[in-house]
């Protein structure tokens, strides 16, 4: 068992679970979505992207692409949340739905990344 592969898989799955944790809830209810969870999802996603730069597997470039998409989506969600927060104390339902929609896009990219990781792991020869 390779410690590097374990850490690689751990960070990829953690990025997905944090992203799912943020997205779950009523899409337009700000009480169901925590800013800290979005921040952690973004940080772990960025870490996963950096780790994927060293991946030389056949699916490595596709995994890197999915991670970059997740980063862009999460950065967009965080930027929108910051922008909307400057306009008022509490986000409206429509504003929160926009933020969560961006995060949901990142979640789709993270799901694809985990599926690719599973495919790659299943194809490994001992």
Entry keywords:
mainly alpha, 78% helix, 0% strand, elongated
Notes on the protein architecture:
- With 126 residues, this protein is an all-alpha fold.
- The protein has helices at residues 3-23, 35-52, 60-87, 93-123.
- Helix 1 (3-23) packs antiparallel against helix 4 and helix 3 packs antiparallel against helix 4.
Short description:
With 126 residues, the protein is mainly alpha-helical.
Strand fraction equals under 5%
Question: Whole-Å distance between the termini?
Answer: 11 Å
Low-confidence stretches: none
Q: Please report the number of helical segments.
A: 4
User: What's the β-strand tally?
Assistant: 0
**Main sheet, how many strands, which sense, barrel?**
none
Radius of gyration over C-alpha positions, nearest whole angstrom: 16 Å
Encode the helix/strand succession as letters: HHHH
Mean pLDDT: 91
The helix/strand class is mainly alpha
Shape summary = elongated
**Percent range of helical residues:** over 70%
Please outline the helices and strands.
Layout: H1 3-23, H2 35-52, H3 60-87, H4 93-123
């Amino acid at each position: 068992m390779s410690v590097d592969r374990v850490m690689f898989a751990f960070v990829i799955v953690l990025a997905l679970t944090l992203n799912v944790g943020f997205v779950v809830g009523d899409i337009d209810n700000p009480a169901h979505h925590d800013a800290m969870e979005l921040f952690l999802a973004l940080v772990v996603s960025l870490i996963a992207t950096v780790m994927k730069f060293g991946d030389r597997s056949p699916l490595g470039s596709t995994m890197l692409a999915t991670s970059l998409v997740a980063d862009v989506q999460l950065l967009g969600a965080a930027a929108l949340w910051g922008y909307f927060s400057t306009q008022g104390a509490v986000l409206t339902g429509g504003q929160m739905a926009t933020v969560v929609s961006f995060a949901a896009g990142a979640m789709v990219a993270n799901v694809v990344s985990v599926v690719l990781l599973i495919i790659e792991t299943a194809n490994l020869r001992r």
